[in-house]
């Protein structure tokens, strides 16, 4: 599959453009300092301090204090199309993505019908091309219909543009099937992304098994249900030599399993969501269904472990698990509400506030978590501002005061527990293929990116 | 984002006269009221408020002894009994309490209403709200159903059992019964035995008994334990003898037959052998121990008939006190002052 070409929104700007005077953070090239970024034909051509400006070059003055980074990639979102367009569409999903600072998203296959077929993959890519905002990397199903019985046509999905396979929404329960999926997908350079949950231990749980669920009378989802399957997946990855990626890790024991797998040289990677390193099960007290997700919000010791994993490198990526739901679906008894919250438009602010400003991780590490590593895990272009790569760029305004306002989301959905939060740090602008796709007008000077008029 | 009823606005608009000029007996003239808008959890009540409810219930009990068992306290108030789970006992108890207080009552049962046609709880509550009831008594299989209802309506919501979460009026009537028999709750050893994990009665009782200073011991199979009981200042044991030892009060919880399917225990017979309350086991308790059960009982499973029908049993007193406690809660919530 060496001839495989990047997929998604093919946008380009033929103009020569220079981003002048910003702080550039590009960990792959060891850059963290004041530099200009030259873009030509939609690709990065040079990065360096005080670049010479040829006549005819469009000059974008990077607003003071803003940071130019390789485009952020959210490797775990649910765009709901086809089948659940009342929750989200590809168009509204990518609009939310670029507003949240993401230049690309990988969308999970649990649509209706399931993305287990090249036709569905092409439909998603067509919608993304029409939207011309963020790049969209479809994730195909591991099994036909995500039924956990028979492998999906993974080779065909790859040819159509899928970058990974997952049965997300549910785990690959059968260990033999998981083993074969790892072996088979690796032929196509695709990782298997697993939603790790032992279904027999999880039962019909709705909240993290612990003190709070017990007091509230909510059926528990134990951390070990996650840990056991992560242990299994790490072991099977070791057996097969194939890469496995653990979706939305949340339990401290599960992270220990990833860590020890990495120590043994096993090709395991993992992602954590902003809510799993920010919120705990203590928030469940009012039975607000915007705190219901799977994996569930866990206890303080788990949150602390996630923060440590982000710091020490055992967690590779931050992904949102953006899961839009209609408000009617969430306005029900806690037991009956669907799992999941939206995340695209809050993730970067939470990361800046809770990780960078809190002194937990440095900005360059955050860029690794949101850009470099997702690109590597998925094997997609990006994650760096190297000459020749598409000019996918996220411009951060780390000192911006942000107030989360769910009603103003570009996503169709409003199901967030972060509504009303005040956060320190946000997004100034987003560029995909050298073209500005989002400008945050509340950032002074950011309108210099706005060349759409 | 969930639409939320603004509680402060709510408080301002509801006329909060408890008995007003309706000619209530003197002892009910000036209700001190409860701080919270709703009674969803025992955790909504302070220890003082619990005592107030129990004291008021004592006064209410007297109404039940009159020839005309009715006071005009809640005249003109509308109370909806919204029951999504069948419960003859609790519903009857609330209904009698409401009628004795002269409230207008409306019973909405899950069967025979729009509920079965797939209407959501939110819509049911909003439709009822449009008819401006003063209070909604809600029984529902889902934990937190009362919290959802309370957010969507101005009517005060009384939780009459929400899934595995709580059953506050049950715990209050239990405390009333203990107080009547023992003169106090503080310092007593109360042992609660049975299916702890799935019991809303347990959860409400633990909060209430701890708030009133009882020493609480819970006992059941390891499979039906709650995690981290120590965090609730409760002693947990799987030894029935340890639980019964020196107990002042033994409260038995109902064992549901379907629990065998969740691998919780092998058979009802074995449950009775290991945890059933028998006369022999009871000998370790204090001589004046009382036996309580929230009902309905499974004789020969969690309790031997000899114990249920024996001299220590106060099970029927619990039922009688249920009406008085519910009258007190209805009365105090109707008269709640809100700052
Ligand atoms: Zn998942
Ligand atoms: Zn997901």
Short description:
The complex is a heterodimer of chains A (453) and B (339). Chain A is α/β, with parallel strands linked by helices and 453 residues long.
Notes on the protein architecture:
The complex is a heterodimer of chains A (453) and B (339). Chain A contains twelve helices and 18 strands. Chain A has helices spanning 90-99, 118-131, 154-160, 175-186, 199-202, 211-216, 223-240, 252-263, 300-312, 327-330, 347-357, 363-378; strands at 17-26, 31-40, 43-48, 58-61, 67-70, 72-77, 102-107, 135-140, 164-166, 192-194, 207-208, 220-221, 244-246, 268-272, 317-318, 393-403, 422-432, 435-439. In chain A, strands 1, 2, 3, 4, 5, 16, 17 and 18 form an eight-stranded mixed sheet that branches. The longest helix of chain A is centred in the middle third of the chain and has 18 residues, at 223-240. With 339 residues, chain B is α/β, with parallel strands linked by helices. Helix content of chain B is 36%, strand content 13%. In chain B, strand 5 (189-193), helix 7 (200-211) and strand 6 (215-219) form a beta-alpha-beta unit. In chain B, helix 2 (47-63) packs across helix 12 (315-334). The longest helix of chain B has 20 residues, at 315-334. The radius of gyration of chain B is 20 Å and the shape is globular. The two termini of chain B are 27 Å apart. Residues 1-30 of chain B have low confidence and may be disordered. The chains are: A alpha/beta (453), B alpha/beta (339). The A-B interface holds A 203, 209-211, 214-219, 286-290, 327-328, 330-336, 406-407, 414-416, 419 and B 1-3, 120-122, 140-145, 147-148, 162-166, 200, 203, 226-228, 231-232, 262. The structure holds zinc ion (ZN) (2 copies).
